[in-house]
C-alpha cells in the first residue's frame, strides 16, 4: 500500500534507529514539519510546538514529509483558539469545571501526544548524546521563558491596556512549561535509554514495546508514583488569603485568612486533593492560577457552568487559587507524551500504511476502553488533576485522530479539506503566541480612537453583533473568522519558508 518513496524513507529510518549513527536531521525533518509526501528541502532546527528537532551542519537534502502531523497540530491550535475566545459565551465547550471532558479538554493531551510522535522521529540517530541533551535542555529553557512571559501575569488581558507583573505573584506554571517538562523527560529517555534489538521486528503489537522496554518502565514508574501520591498522601487543613488581599500588607490580621478543612488522603475533589497541596507548598499559593475552573462549579458560581457570583454559603476553597498545569498533574501529563512516542516508533519501524494504521487503531481503541472503564468505576476524567483515566482516554482519542488524518491526507492524498489546518500547524508556536495567547489582539487594541473601547478589535466584534441575531452566534462567527484569517497568514508564511522555531 505504500509508494516507493515511502518505502525508501522508512528503510532509512529503520536503519537509523538500529545503527545509532550520528545525528541526521535530514531523516527526522520530513515526517514532522512538512505538508505531505512531497519533496521539500530540510532546514535546520524546529520549534517544540512544531517539532522538537536539533540542528545539523550537513548539506541540505530532500526528503518526504508527513502532512497529517501538521494537520493534527493545526487542529489543536484551532480548537485552542476557539475554546479560549468563544468559551465565555459557549460554556459547554469551555474546560469542564472539574470532572468530565469538553472540547477544550482535548487540547493539552493532543499537543503532548504530537510532541511524543515528533520526538520518535527526531532522535532516531544520535551521535553525541551530550550535545543532543544540551540542545534539548536549551529548547526547554527557551520554551519555559516564553511561557512565563505569556502566562505568568505580565499581560493583563484584552480588557486591560496595562502590563507588568509583581514577581511575588508571578505564575510559574503554564501550557508551554508543561509541554517543555514532558518534552525534557521523554527526550532524555529517548536519548539515553537502552533499546532492545530492532532489526526485523515482528508484526506483533507488543514487539515494538519490547524494543523500547526502558521507556515503558519509566512510564510505568511515573504512573505508579502519580497514583501513590494522589491517593496516599494525607492533605492537612490549610489557610490562604483571598486574592483581593495583598499577602504582604501589614494591615492583614490572622483572622483575614480563610481556612479549608481537609485532614484526608485520597480526596480528588477541588478542596483537598494532593495536586493542589503540593503546588501550594512547593510553588507558593501566590504563584498559582488565580481563576481555577472549579470556580465555575455549582458550589462556587450562581451561573454554573460559567463564572458567576458566589452563591450563599459558598465554601472557602471557591476563592482559592489552583494551577491546572501544576507539578504533579504535569508529571501525569508526561504519559500523554510517551503514548505519542510509541505511535512515532510505529511510524519509524513499520514501512507500509496498513501496518501503521493497524498498530495505531487497535491500541487507540484499547486506551479509550481502559479510560472509559476507569471513569465508570470511579476514577473520573479530570483534566485539572490529569487523572489516569483521562490520560488513557485522551491518548486513544489522539491516536484515532492521527490515524484518520494519516489515511485521509497521506494515504489517499485528500489534502484540500485540511490545507488550512496544515498551514496553521506549520507555524503552531507563532499561532499560539500571537492568537491563542491574545498577544496580537492586545497590541492591536492599544491603538484606538478617542476612547480605549473604540479600537479595531471591538469594532470587529460589533460588526458581527450587528449581522447576527445573538451575542453567542456573533462571538462564534468572530472567532471562526479569526481562525480562518490566521490560517491564511500561516499559509503565506509557510509558502515563504518562514517558520518561528525555538
From TrEMBL:
This is Heparan-alpha-glucosaminide N-acetyltransferase catalytic domain-containing protein. Pfam families: HGSNAT_cat. Residues 65-189 form the Heparan-alpha-glucosaminide N-acetyltransferase catalytic domain. Keywords: Membrane, Transmembrane, Transmembrane helix. The chain crosses the membrane at residues 66-83, 103-124, 136-155, 175-193, 213-233, 327-348, 360-379, 385-409. InterPro entries: HGSNAT_cat.
Amino acid at each position: 500500500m505504500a509508494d516507493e518513496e515511502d518505502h525508501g524513507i522508512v528503510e532509512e529510518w529503520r536503519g537509523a534507529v538500529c545503527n545509532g549513527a550520528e545525528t541526521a536531521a535530514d531523516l527526522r525533518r520530513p515526517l514532522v514539519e512538512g505538508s505531505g509526501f512531497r519533496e521539500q528541502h530540510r532546514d535546520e532546527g524546529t520549534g517544540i510546538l512544531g517539532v522538537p528537532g536539533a540542528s545539523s551542519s550537513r548539506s541540505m537534502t530532500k526528503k518526504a514529509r508527513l502532512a497529517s502531523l501538521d494537520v493534527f497540530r493545526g487542529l489543536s491550535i484551532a480548537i485552542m483558539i476557539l475554546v479560549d475566545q468563544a468559551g465565555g459565551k459557549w460554556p459547554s465547550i469551555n474546560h469542564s469545571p472539574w470532572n468530565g471532558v469538553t472540547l477544550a479538554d482535548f487540547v493539552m493531551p493532543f499537543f503532548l501526544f504530537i510532541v511524543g510522535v515528533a520526538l520518535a522521529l527526531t532522535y532516531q540517530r544520535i551521535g553525541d548524546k551530550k550535545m543532543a541533551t544540551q540542545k534539548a535542555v536549551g529548547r526547554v529553557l527557551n520554551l519555559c521563558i516564553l511561557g512565563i512571559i505569556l502566562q505568568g501575569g505580565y499581560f493583563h488581558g484584552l480588557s486591560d491596556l496595562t502590563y507588568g507583573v509583581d514577581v511575588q505573584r508571578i505564575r510559574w506554571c503554564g501550557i508551554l512549561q508543561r509541554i517543555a517538562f514532558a518534552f525534557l523527560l521523554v527526550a532524555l529517555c529517548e536519548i539515553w535509554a537502552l533499546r532492545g534489538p530492532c532489526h526485523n521486528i515482528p508484526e506483533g503489537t507488543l514487539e515494538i514495546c519490547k524494543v523500547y522496554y526502558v521507556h515503558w518502565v519509566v512510564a510505568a514508574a511515573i504512573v505508579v508514583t502519580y497514583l501513590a501520591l494522589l491517593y496516599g498522601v494525607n492533605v492537612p487543613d490549610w489557610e490562604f488569603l483571598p486574592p483581593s488581599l495583598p499577602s504582604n500588607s501589614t494591615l492583614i490580621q490572622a483572622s483575614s485568612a480563610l481556612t479549608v478543612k481537609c485532614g484526608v488522603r485520597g480526596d480528588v475533589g477541588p478542596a483537598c486533593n494532593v495536586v493542589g497541596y503540593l503546588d501550594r507548598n512547593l510553588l507558593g499559593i501566590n504563584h498559582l492560577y488565580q481563576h481555577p475552573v472549579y470556580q465555575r462549579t455549582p458550589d462556587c458560581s450562581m451561573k454554573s457552568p460559567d463564572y458567576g457570583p458566589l452563591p450563599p454559603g459558598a465554601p472557602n476553597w471557591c476563592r482559592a487559587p489552583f494551577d491546572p498545569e501544576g507539578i504533579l498533574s504535569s508529571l501525569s501529563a508526561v504519559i500523554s507524551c510517551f503514548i505519542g512516542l510509541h505511535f512515532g516508533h510505529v511510524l519509524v519501524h513499520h514501512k507500509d500504511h496498513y501496518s501503521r494504521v493497524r498498530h495505531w487503531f487497535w491500541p487507540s481503541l484499547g486506551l479509550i476502553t481502559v479510560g472509559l472503564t476507569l471513569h465508570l468505576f470511579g476514577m473520573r476524567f479530570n483534566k485539572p488533576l490529569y487523572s489516569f483515566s483521562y490520560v488513557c482516554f485522551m491518548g486513544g482519542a489522539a491516536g484515532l485522530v492521527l490515524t484518520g488524518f494519516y489515511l485521509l491526507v497521506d494515504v489517499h492524498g485528500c489534502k484540500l479539506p485540511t490545507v488550512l489546518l496544515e498551514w496553521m500547524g506549520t507555524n503552531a508556536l507563532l499561532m499560539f503566541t500571537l492568537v491563542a495567547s491574545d498577544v496580537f489582539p492586545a497590541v492591536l487594541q492599544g491603538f484606538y480612537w478617542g476612547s480605549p473601547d473604540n479600537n479595531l478589535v471591538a469594532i470587529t466584534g460589533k460588526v458581527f453583533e450587528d449581522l447576527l441575531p445573538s451575542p453567542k452566534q456573533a462571538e462564534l462567527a468572530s472567532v471562526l473568522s479569526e481562525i480562518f484569517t490566521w490560517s491564511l497568514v500561516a499559509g503565506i508564511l509557510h509558502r515563504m519558508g518562514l517558520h518561528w522555531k525555538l
